Amino acid sequence: MQITVxxxxxxxxxxxxxxxxxxxxxxxxxxxxxxxxPDEALRDRVEKAAASCPVRAITVTAP
Length: 63
Prior knowledge:
globular; alpha+beta
């Protein structure tokens, strides 16, 4: 799977970090960091994280 985050849209609400902390996190400056190609076993959590984004900045696609 491939994750893309539109950083021009991301408002750092952090919902994705709470839902899938193994894929999404904040750095020391509260800038979103994420694994763009996480393990397929995390798909359910990553899709839930994308759905939880209030500004729909996260896209999950097949590799």
